[in-house]
């Protein structure tokens, strides 16, 4: 881990990296400036992760990296060598929707659907973080995901429902 | 984005050596600002030195009572660390007022200190900018400057430092620990960022090759009387128009120690020790708070769009001091301002 | 007939919901092709002048760079302006990308860098060097307003202001109570979450399949055919999912031109995706300066309405919208003068943005009406009721239906308006001032000629199709509901296909007309299938339905049965087997009735009530509650309908408090061209939103009585919030968005 690696790329040399994407180990060569988001979308064809602003200002590109939600547009792929990445394609398991995915459908928590994968990755992590209890807290900690269609109240309803049923199950 | 080479530093020494050897190399950690700027072609490093795997990701108590935040700790880790929350709630609150959960998971303590200033023109290579291309001029001065500075500006640059965390660090008088080609040194927070003057391209007092290793929080923690009040154009996920970190130590209703730091108003987190001194030995009162605010803003200068910030800062300072004195710090999730 | 299973009118989950929550829904930039090349657009840094030189040599030297297209090396395209005109183009000369060395606005595309990989293109783009010769530009409406003019050529589909009636000037002079003020609305950009993108797949036979962010696949198809001289069967535009648009996809944007140009030239598939900052380099909601003068008697009865608007347009097209007509449409008055003018600035041409014109004009009139309420001491709801327009006075037509009165009443009840102390600054919640304000919303109920096909397969599966688009509105779902009800099938056995230029003809999706237009077309096509199927059933040997008529049978669970004897019937499958066909299909057109549109005016209406809490000292405004009561005819799906209204309200909150594209007039350039500094509402900004659908029966506009919902949610919302801020603070801010500086100032 601490051994240094020195790559140079004068002739557009690519660097091999390994990522665990949705549980599957992927080895791929990337340019130093390949961004995780573009790697997922253009190279691994996991287009569920969206590019909305490409500058960390909208949250459409949210993925879960080693258990934390991050903006994949701000992460250089080469720096994520060895990381475990969960994208929207990895949220459902064996075809069964995650409760939050179902709650998004039931509460109509999206319209165009473009911010939705980011909202869901963010919401799933918010639930795992276990800090949000009130609607104010959900709102604030979901504010890194812009929805231009304005589905915010339904998004909060969907998350609150899953949070509530989790708390009930935990009793 | 320009072409660059990439190296992953295995040790601090190696990182420093690599950076010293190449003046256009940059350290990269969370990347939330550097990658942003590189995509706009504002930053064009020839080499990136990845320092995320350096052993600088711990939060530790020192023997003399400080809390030492490794430079690679993330904003999220710091904000939710139980020691930070119980002993430095001002810092936790300021961090949580900034950016978004996603960005806080990536952004690091060291990187937050090294955020470049926020300015429409600096970010847009289609326009002149003295900070980006020295000598080309500052269109912000006579252009759109709603988000720009009112204090410490120069004719060359009126950009603002956008960090929330740094405003709290300024109030807490944190110490920045540095490693560099000439060994280790420490810089007080107040001397870490600089004003633009005639060299707006330089944001900090770091020297070439130097790397931030840790931020040390002094024992004085202001647990009872503190607040971080952030005023902005929407209720979350926006840079501050004005933010105020206020920290007081009070004894039987009298202010014993006072710190006030402002964000969003200058090229650096803004402190005014003389104004703070006006509070010591006095009871909390709106009148005195207003006098202090006036003193801090005595040389404030507004431009076409941002003159309102002077008034807003004055009001923000008074409110923040009132919150701190009352022991009712601003919540970052309940948007009703206390 | 539609009540068979009752999908129509009942809340249904979106049929595309699963695709959207799993990431399976594919948007324009997400279709792959062998050997796909990536294009990156370079934008002009200056607002006006010419390109003196472009040095592309460094970029071309990068391995993997395929070509850098500029005006100097682009291949031949159509010569005539009119070849670039799309079906929604305003009068004028459309912008032609890479046409020559002239720069006519800041951000205009001036080069396209194409490479084997996105990362290579991004790097190469940073190496292109451009030198300009600049001319003097002008982007300041405050200066250009003195040269404002009445557009000589009207934009198709946009009603010019009606001729003046009575003597508004004189009546205003004589009126005992007067309100006269100027209202300003900032430039806004649509900023859908998905940036504009086109993936042009160059097929082996040289035809093009284009995955394109558009509200009109056939509009984009005909644009490409016309500009590049291709026949329509050489170009197919497919856009099953659109990541929002709000009007930005009504016209083909320049990335489509560039991607097609590159694909044809390189004989290779090409994808071009705009960056977020490039989303500020084409259409926008124009800046508007409006003057409203209201003269009234002390009892609030309007004696004079004068409403003038000046809006920005580009130097090359006369973009127009309906801004001022709404004032007289909403309020009875005998002396009316409505005027609308344009002023040219050196920007891109504006483009329709959610409720174009109405969002602008109604904000002004509804703010002015609030001022009149205070000037006369009459409750704002009561003032509107007193001046309620019973007919469309300008056109001397009845309304096809209008339940606005019920909107006021039900909205006020739900909101608790009766508890309001009208005195400004009289209501508080702790430190915060509380303000309650209201406003009216209105939008035209439009229907456009649209075709649809319905194909029932022998396995009992129904497919309905139409070349319209679903930008998030729920079109997939409502068309499925309509078709399932008519054919008596569960929704799971109906597939809706839209977003493909090869499907039956449809205009662009917009103007809130899609539900009425595509919905009616699907309805008619399904009815034809139903009739054919019934005919086949009757003609079966020993048919149990031989003596039945269509009125006496029901279609249910994939069978035709006698309504009063449901045990007697035949299955769709048996009917087709007996007939020896494997499908029954029909394609039909729906058109608005000419007589109806000459005799009736069709509009949807709303009453919007807003609560704000204001920390006056710090200028912080929170919109804590909105109630919107909407009368919009038949509500096909209350669940997706509610989302439409909520979305419009959130847009309205943005308009009221946050959204402003800031031009630097020295540079002629939008400066906050990103989502960090062009503020749209985030989750924390949005609190309780309550939507009421007021029952409204309309049997004139279209068979199902649909009026549409995409626009009405935003209209009136900004005014309601502005009026609430006045109630809270006593400060009347007539310059939207109402930001901290304005509240403190």
From TrEMBL, chain A:
Domain of life of the native organism:
Bacteria
Q: What InterPro entries does the database record attribute to this sequence?
A: 2Fe-2S-bd, 2Fe-2S-bd_dom_sf, 2Fe-2S_ferredoxin-like_sf, 2Fe-2S_ferredoxin-type, 2Fe2S_fd_BS, Ald_DH_CS_CYS, Aldehyde_Oxdr_Iron-Sulfur, Beta-grasp_dom_sf
**Which GO MF terms are attached to this record?**
2 iron, 2 sulfur cluster binding; metal ion binding; oxidoreductase activity, acting on the aldehyde or oxo group of donors
Specify the 2Fe-2S ferredoxin-type domain's residue ranges: 15-91
Q: Which Pfam families match?
A: Fer2, Fer2_2
Keywords, in A-Z order: 2Fe-2S, Iron, Iron-sulfur, Metal-binding, Oxidoreductase
Gene3D superfamilies to which the protein is assigned, alphabetical: 3.10.20.30, [2Fe-2S]-binding domain (1.10.150.120)
* Name of protein: Xanthine dehydrogenase YagT iron-sulfur-binding subunit
Species assigned in the record: Microvirga lupini
TrEMBL record, chain B:
Q: Which residue ranges does the record assign to the FAD-binding PCMH-type domain?
A: 1-222
Q: Name one GO molecular function term.
A: xanthine dehydrogenase activity
Entry EC no(s): 1.17.1.4
The record's keywords, sorted A to Z, are:
FAD, Flavoprotein, Oxidoreductase
What's its top-level EC category?
Answer: oxidoreductase
One Pfam family this chain carries?
A: CO_deh_flav_C
* Organism superkingdom: Bacteria
The name on file for this protein is Xanthine dehydrogenase YagS FAD-binding subunit
Species whose genome carries this gene: Microvirga lupini
Organism lineage string: Bacteria, Pseudomonadati, Pseudomonadota, Alphaproteobacteria, Hyphomicrobiales
TrEMBL record, chain C:
- Spell out the SMART domains in the cross-references: Ald_Xan_dh_C (SM01008)
Q: One MF term in GO for this entry? A: xanthine dehydrogenase activity
Give the E.C. number(s).
1.17.1.4
- Keyword annotations: Oxidoreductase
| Domain Aldehyde oxidase/xanthine dehydrogenase a/b hammerhead residue range list | 22-136
| Name of the protein in question | Xanthine dehydrogenase YagR molybdenum-binding subunit
Species of origin reads Microvirga lupini
């Amino acid at each position: 881990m601490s051994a240094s690696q020195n790559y140079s790329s004068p002739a557009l040399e690519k660097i091999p990296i390994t990522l665990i994407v949705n549980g599957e180990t992927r080895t791929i060569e990337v340019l130093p400036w390949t961004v995780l988001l573009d790697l997922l979308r253009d190279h691994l064809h996991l287009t569920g992760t969206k590019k909305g602003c490409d500058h960390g200002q909208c949250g459409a590109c949210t993925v879960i990296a080693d258990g934390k939600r991050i903006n994949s547009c701000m992460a250089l792929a080469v720096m994520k060598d060895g990381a475990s990445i969960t994208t929207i394609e990895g949220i459902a398991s064996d075809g069964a929707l995650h409760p939050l995915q179902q709650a998004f459908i039931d509460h109509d928590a999206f319209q165009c659907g473009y911010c939705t994968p980011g909202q869901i990755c963010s919401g799933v992590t918010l639930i795992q973080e276990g800090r949000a209890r009130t609607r104010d807290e959900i709102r604030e900690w979901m504010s890194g995901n812009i929805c231009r269609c304005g589905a915010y109240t339904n998004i909060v309803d969907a998350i609150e429902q899953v949070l509530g049923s989790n708390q009930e199950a935990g009793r | 984005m320009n072409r660059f080479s990439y190296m992953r530093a295995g040790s601090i020494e190696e990182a420093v050596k690599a950076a010293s050897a190449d003046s256009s190399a940059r350290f990269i950690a969370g990347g939330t600002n550097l990658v942003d700027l590189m995509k706009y072609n504002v930053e064009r490093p020839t080499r990136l030195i990845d320092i995320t795997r350096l052993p600088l990701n711990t939060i530790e108590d020192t023997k003399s009572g400080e809390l030492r935040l490794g430079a690679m700790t993330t904003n999220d880790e710091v904000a939710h660390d139980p020691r930070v929350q119980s002993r430095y709630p001002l810092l936790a609150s300021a961090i949580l007022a900034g950016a978004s959960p996603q960005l806080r998971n990536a952004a690091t303590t060291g990187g937050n200190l090294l955020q470049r200033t926020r300015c429409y023109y600096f970010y847009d290579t289609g326009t002149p900018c003295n900070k980006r291309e020295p000598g080309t001029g500052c269109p912000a001065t006579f252009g759109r400057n709603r988000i720009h500075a009112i204090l410490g500006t120069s004719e060359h640059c009126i950009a603002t430092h956008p960090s929330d965390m740094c405003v709290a660090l300024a109030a807490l008088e944190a110490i920045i620990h540095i490693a560099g080609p000439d060994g280790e040194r420490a810089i007080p927070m107040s001397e870490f960022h600089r004003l633009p003057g005639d060299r707006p391209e330089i944001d900090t007092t770091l020297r070439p090759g130097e790397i931030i290793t840790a931020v040390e929080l002094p024992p004085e923690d202001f647990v009872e009387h503190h607040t971080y009040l952030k005023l902005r154009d929407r209720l979350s996920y926006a840079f501050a128009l004005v933010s105020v970190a206020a920290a007081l130590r009070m004894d039987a209703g009298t202010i014993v120690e006072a710190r006030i730091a402002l964000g969003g108003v200058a090229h650096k987190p803004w402190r005014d020790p003389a104004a703070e001194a006006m509070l010591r030995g006095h009871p909390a009162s709106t009148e005195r708070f207003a006098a202090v605010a006036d003193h801090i803003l005595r040389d404030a200068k507004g431009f076409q769009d941002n003159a309102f910030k002077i008034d807003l800062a004055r009001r923000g300072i008074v409110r923040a001091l009132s919150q701190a004195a009352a022991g009712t710090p601003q919540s970052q999730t309940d948007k009703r301002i206390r | 007939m539609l009540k068979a299973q009752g999908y129509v009118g009942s809340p249904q989950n979106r049929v595309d919901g699963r695709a959207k929550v799993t990431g399976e829904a594919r948007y324009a930039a997400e279709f792959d092709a062998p050997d796909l090349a990536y294009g990156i657009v370079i934008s002009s840094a200056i607002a006006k002048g010419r390109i003196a030189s472009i040095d592309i040599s460094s970029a071309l030297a990068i391995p993997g760079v395929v070509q850098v297209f500029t005006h100097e090396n682009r291949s031949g395209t159509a010569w005539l302006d009119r070849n670039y005109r799309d079906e929604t183009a305003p009068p004028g000369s459309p912008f032609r990308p890479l046409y020559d060395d002239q720069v006519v606005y800041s951000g205009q595309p001036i080069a396209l860098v194409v490479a084997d990989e996105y990362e290579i293109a991004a790097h190469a783009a940073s190496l292109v060097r451009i030198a300009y010769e600049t001319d003097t530009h002008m982007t300041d409406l405050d200066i250009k307003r003195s040269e404002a003019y009445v557009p000589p050529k009207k934009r198709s589909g946009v009603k010019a202001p009606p001729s003046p009636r009575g003597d508004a000037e004189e009546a205003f002079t004589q009126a005992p109570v007067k309100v006269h003020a100027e209202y300003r609305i900032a430039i806004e950009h649509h900023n859908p979450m998905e940036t504009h993108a086109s993936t042009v797949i160059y097929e082996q036979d040289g035809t093009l399949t284009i995955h394109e962010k558009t509200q009109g696949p056939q509009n984009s198809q005909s644009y490409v055919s016309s500009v590049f001289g291709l026949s329509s069967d050489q170009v197919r535009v497919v856009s099953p999912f659109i990541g929002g648009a709000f009007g930005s996809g009504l016209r083909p944007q320049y990335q489509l031109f560039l991607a097609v140009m590159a694909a044809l030239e390189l004989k290779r598939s090409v994808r071009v995706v705009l960056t977020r900052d490039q989303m500020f380099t084409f259409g926008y909601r124009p800046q508007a300066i409006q003057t409203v003068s209201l003269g009234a008697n002390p009892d609030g009865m309007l004696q004079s309405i004068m409403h003038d608007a000046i809006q920005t347009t580009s130097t090359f097209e006369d973009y127009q919208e309906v801004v001022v007509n709404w004032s007289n449409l909403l309020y009875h008055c005998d002396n009316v003068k409505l005027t609308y003018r344009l002023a040219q600035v050196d920007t891109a041409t504006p483009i329709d943005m959610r409720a174009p014109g109405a969002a602008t004009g109604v904000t002004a009139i509804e703010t002015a009406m609030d001022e009149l309420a205070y000037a006369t001491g009459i409750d704002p709801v009561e003032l509107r009721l007193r001046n309620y327009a019973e007919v469309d006075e300008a056109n001397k037509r009845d309304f096809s239906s209008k339940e606005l009165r019920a909107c006021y009443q039900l909205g006020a009840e739900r909101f608790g308006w009766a508890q309001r102390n009208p005195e400004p600054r009289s209501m508080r919640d702790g430190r915060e001032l509380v303000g309650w304000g209201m406003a009216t919303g209105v939008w035209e109920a439009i229907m456009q000629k649209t075709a649809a096909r319905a194909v029932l397969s022998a396995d009992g599966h129904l497919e309905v199709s139409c070349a319209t688009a679903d930008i998030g509105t729920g079109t997939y779902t409502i068309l499925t509901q309509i078709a399932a009800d008519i054919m008596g099938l569960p929704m799971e056995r109906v597939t809706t296909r839209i977003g493909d230029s090869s499907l039956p003809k449809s205009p662009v999706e917009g103007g809130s007309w899609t539900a009425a237009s595509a919905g009616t077309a699907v309805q008619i096509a399904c009815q034809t299938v139903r009739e054919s199927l019934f005919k086949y059933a009757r003609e079966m040997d020993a048919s149990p339905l031989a003596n039945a008529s269509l009125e006496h049978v029901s279609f249910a669970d994939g069978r035709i049965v006698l309504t009063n004897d449901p045990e007697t019937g035949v299955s769709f499958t048996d009917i087709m087997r007996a007939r020896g066909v494997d499908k029954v299909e029909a394609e039909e057109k729906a058109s608005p009735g000419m007589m109806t549109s000459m005799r009736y005016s069709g509009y949807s209406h709303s009453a919007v009530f807003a609560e704000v809490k204001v920390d006056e000292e710090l200028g912080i405004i929170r919109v804590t509650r909105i109630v919107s009561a909407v009368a919009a005819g038949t509500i096909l799906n209350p669940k997706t309908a509610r989302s439409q209204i909520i979305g419009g309200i959130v847009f309205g909150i943005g308009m009221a408090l946050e959204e402003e594209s800031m031009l630097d007039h020295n540079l002629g350039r939008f400066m906050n061209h990103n989502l960090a500094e062009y503020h749209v509402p985030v989750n924390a900004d949005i609190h309780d939103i309550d939507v009421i659908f007021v029952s409204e029966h309309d049997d004139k506009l279209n068979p199902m009585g649909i009026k549409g919902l995409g626009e009405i949610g935003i209209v009136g919302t900004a005014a309601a919030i502005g009026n609430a801020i006045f109630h809270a603070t006593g400060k009347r801010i007539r310059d939207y968005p109402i930001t901290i500086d304005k509240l403190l100032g």
